[in-house]
């Protein structure tokens, strides 16, 4: 008896890996780069905590994304909504990479960062729930559990790749986190945009 993964399961797993790569990459950036670029307070600990709070915002948006995208998936179709979730994540991630720094536009920068992080959370929550459902629906009856669990592997792979790619993050920004100068903020903003792209 051989159990097969359906094409829908493979596509869902790859899509989940891509989504979670973007979602997890933000966590690394929140710890290493974003405190200097978006939260230039006199206290590096407060800036880092503020940056990590924006990371948490995405997790709070995930259940809402799962519900909203799930309902729309029932009405419009799961494949269409999975494509929409990929677009949401890609657009939000690209716009985060293009955001001007706090030094350039002031408090609007962290406000836009939080809003884009909410969009990322909505996309990640909707994609994860939809991927598992679509995998289960397109699987043979005897392989339904295996197919429904496969997108979870995409979650782990995406997170691992994001963690591994963080080793190529702008090292100069990591060393400048303690200096907190406007020049450091501008150079890290340019490095962040290049790294996130």
TrEMBL record:
Recorded superkingdom: Bacteria
Topological relation to the membrane, as annotated: Multi-pass membrane protein
Organism in which the protein naturally occurs: Nonomuraea maheshkhaliensis
Keyword Nucleotide-binding (UniProt): no
Transmembrane feature ranges: 20-39, 45-69, 81-105
Main location: membrane
Entry keywords, A to Z: Cell membrane, Membrane, Transmembrane, Transmembrane helix, Transport
Alphabetized Pfam families for the sequence: Sugar_tr
UniProt domain Major facilitator superfamily (MFS) profile: residue ranges: 8-197
Locations listed in the record: Cell membrane
The protein's name: Major facilitator superfamily (MFS) profile domain-containing protein
């Amino acid at each position: 008896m051989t159990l097969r993964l359906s094409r829908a399961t493979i596509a869902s797993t790859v899509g989940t890996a891509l989504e979670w790569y973007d979602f997890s990459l933000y966590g690394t950036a929140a710890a290493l780069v974003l405190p200097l670029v978006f939260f230039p307070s006199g206290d590096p600990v407060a800036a880092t905590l503020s940056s990590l709070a924006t990371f948490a915002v995405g997790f709070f948006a995930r259940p809402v994304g799962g519900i909203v995208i799930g309902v729309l998936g029932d009405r419009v179709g799961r494949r269409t909504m999975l494509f929409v979730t990929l677009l949401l994540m890609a657009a939000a991630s690209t716009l985060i990479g293009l955001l001007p720094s706090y030094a350039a536009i002031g408090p609007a920068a962290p406000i836009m960062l939080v809003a884009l992080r909410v969009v990322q959370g909505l996309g990640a929550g909707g994609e994860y729930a939809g991927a598992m459902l679509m995998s289960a629906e397109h699987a043979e009856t005897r392989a339904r559990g295996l197919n429904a669990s496969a997108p979870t592997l995409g979650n782990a792979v995406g997170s691992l790749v994001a963690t591994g790619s963080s080793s190529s993050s702008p090292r100069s920004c990591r060393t400048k986190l303690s200096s907190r100068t406007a020049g450091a903020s501008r150079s890290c903003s340019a490095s962040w945009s290049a790294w996130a792209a």
